[in-house]
Amino acid sequence: MRVPDGLRRVDYPALAMTLCLGAAGGMVALMLHLPLALLLGSLCVTGVIAAAGWRPFGRGITLPMKLRSAFVPVIGVAIGGAFTPEVLGQAGAWWPSLLALLLFLPLAHAIGFAVYRLGGLPRLESFFGAVPGGLIETVQMGEEAGGDVRLMTVLQFLRLILTILFVPLIFMGLTGGAVGSASGAQLPAAAVHLTVYEVAVLLAAGVLGVSVGRRLRLPAAIMTGPILFSAVAHAVGLVHGVPPAWLVGVTQVVVGCGLGARFVGADAAMLWRAARLAVVNAVLALGLAYGFAMLLADWVREPVAAVFLAFAPGGLAEMSLIALSLQMSVVYVTVHHVARIVLSVMIAKGARRWIG
Prior knowledge:
This protein is mostly helical and about 350 residues long. The protein is about 70% helix and about 0% strand.
C-alpha cells in the first residue's frame, strides 16, 4: 500500500519524543496544581526546547499541523454539548456585549499598533501584528501588502501564547481556584456513559463538522463546524454525552505541543524584541477586556469572569478549553470568540487602504 507523501515526511521518532516531553511537562504542571496544566505544561516545555534549538536524543521538536487539526475538533464536539435549550434561551440578552466587540476590537487593535510603533517596529508589521484575532488571515494580508511574514507571525503568535499564559493565572485570582485540568472540574455531560451509538454520533459530528465547515468557509472551521453539528445533535436529543475527560486532556497536550513547535527556528534577537513589546500589548489588551467585562456583566447577566474570558484575545480553541474546564458560560464565550475572529479580520481588511 502506498504511503501518502504527507505521512512519509513526518519524523515519527521526533514526533514521539515531542509528545512524550509535552506529556511530561503537563504532568509536572498538574502535580504543581498550575492552571490549565496539561496545555501550559506541554507548551512551555516544547516551546523552550524549540526556541533554544536543543535536540534531545538528536531529534528536534516537531508536531504536524494535520495532527493538531485532527484533535482540535474534539474541543468543538465537547462545546456542542453545552448548547442546551436552557442556555440558548439566554442568548437574547447577549446583544450588548456582541455590539461592544465593535468598540473593543478597534481599541485593542489601536493600542497594539501604538505599542509596536513606539517600540520601533515597522508600520506595516505593527498594524497586522496587532490585529486581535485571525492569525492566519491577518498574516496572509500582511504578506500580500509586502510585510515581513516572520515578524508578523511572531507578534500574532505571541498574542495567543501570552493570553493563554496570563488568562488562567488571572482566573485563579478572580475565582480563587485552579483552572483547567488542575481544578479537577468535570466537563459538561462528562458523567454520561457513552454507548457505541453515541460515540458514532460524536465522531460523525466532528468529521462532518470539519468537512462542511471548510466547504462553507466558516471562520476557524475545524472548531466551529464540529461545534455546530454537535450542538444540533445534542439539541435534538441524538446524543447526551460528550468526549471523555481523558480525551480532552490528550487534546490539551497535542495543542500545547503544536503551539510550542512553532518556535522552531525562531530568530532569538527578533523573538526577544517582539516578546517584550507583546507582553506590554497583552497586559493592556487584557486590562481593556476586564474593563469591558466590568461594564457589561450585569447588562448581559453573565459573571464578570465569563465576559472577561469572552473578550480576552486568545485562541478560540484555548479560550474554549478554559470555559469548558470552569463550566462557565461555554456557549456565550464561544459565540463571542467566533464573532471576534470574524470582526477582527473584517476591520483589518477595511483598514488596509489606510496602512498602504
